[in-house]
C-alpha cells in the first residue's frame, strides 16, 4: 500500500549510512544511476538489461547492491509504459521530488539563475561543456559527470546539494517509489552528512524549497565556482 503523502515516517528521515566503495565501483554506481534516473525513453530503457548485468557482476557492497536491486527488480520496471507512467507521476508532479538540484536550494527565485551558472562553471573547471538540451543541475547529468569527468569537482557538486538529495530520497521512500533505491545507493557512496547539513535537510522537509522573497537575500551571495570551496555554503 502506498503511504499517505501528508506524512513522512520517521524512519525515512534517517540519513543513509555511507558505504566504503572503490573509485571504480563509485563510477559504475553513478553511471548506472545516471541512466536509470533519467527519463525512460526507449533507447535508454533498452540498456537496462546491460546495466543490470554490469551491476550484478561488479561485486558491489551488499547494502548498495540491495538498493539498486530495489529498482531493477521492481514491477514498475517490467515494461516501458509502466515505468514512464510512474516517472511522470513522481518527478513531474511532486515539488519535493525534482531532479534539478539547485531547485532545493533556491526554488523558483531569482537566485536560481546564478546557481545554474555555477554548475556550468563547475563542468568547465573539469574540462567539460554541456552538450544536451537540459538544465546543468539535472541530477542524471551531474552523476554522468561524476562517473566520467572530474570526480573531485563532481563530489563537491553533490555534497553541496546533499540536503536536496536527501529530501528527494525521503520523498521517494514515502511514495513507495522504486526510484528510492537508486537515490539511496547514491547516498551510500557520498560522505556522511554533518549536523549542519542534517538541519538544513530537516528544514527542507518542513518548509520545502524557498519561494521568491523580493529584496531579501536569504541565501547570501552565490559566488562563482572555485575548486575546493563548498558550492552550497551559506
UniProtKB/TrEMBL annotation:
One of its GO terms (biological process) is chaperone-mediated protein complex assembly. The keyword Magnesium does not apply. InterPro entries: DMSO/NO3_reduct_chaperone, NO3_reductase_chaperone_NarJ, TorD-like_sf. One of its GO terms (molecular function) is unfolded protein binding. Keywords: Nitrate assimilation. The keyword Transport does not apply. This is Nitrate reductase molybdenum cofactor assembly chaperone. It comes from Flaviflexus ciconiae.
